[in-house]
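// run 5 | inverse folding | seed 20
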């Protein structure tokens, strides 16, 4: 009975992890969107799950959403809330390459005056070192992203 229960638990954990990784891939894929409807749908999806990756994705999406808000005070508030969520997850698990990918993309694309750019080089090097551990889908997304990135340099053959 314990063996069956253990197997069932591992299957559930594996499925949840797989769902999280699919959601992560969709978040990375849509970080360049200018469609607020798509962004809001993704935010709603990541709120449902209460995992580290979903909280990091939620923070990243909030920072991205700040681009679309009109009032400066609301922009800043949304950005800070997202930053706090992402940075909390990075502090808990700084070796998680997915978190570092999210931070790298946001830091490269946020305005300089927000002063959220101190980890660009470290994150780029970390992502490059861990590139071979990523799924094919994430690798493809990062290769495409790296073509326009100032900090992340990847070759298609990697």
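// decoded
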């Amino acid at each position: 009975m314990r063996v069956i229960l253990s197997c069932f638990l591992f299957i559930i954990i594996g499925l949840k992890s797989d769902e999280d990784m699919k959601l992560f891939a969709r978040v990375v894929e849509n970080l360049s969107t200018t469609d607020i409807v798509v962004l809001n749908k993704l935010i709603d999806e990541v709120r449902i799950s209460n995992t580290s990756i979903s909280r990091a994705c939620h923070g990243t999406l909030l920072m991205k959403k700040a681009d679309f808000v009109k009032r400066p005070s609301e922009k800043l508030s949304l950005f800070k809330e997202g930053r706090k969520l992402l940075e909390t997850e990075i502090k808990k698990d700084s070796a998680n390459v997915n978190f570092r990918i999210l931070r790298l993309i946001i830091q490269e694309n946020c305005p300089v005056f927000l002063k959220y750019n101190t980890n660009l080089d470290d994150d780029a090097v970390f992502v490059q070192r861990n590139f071979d551990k990523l799924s094919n889908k994430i690798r493809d997304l990062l290769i495409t992203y790296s073509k326009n990135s100032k900090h992340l340099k990847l070759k298609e053959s990697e």
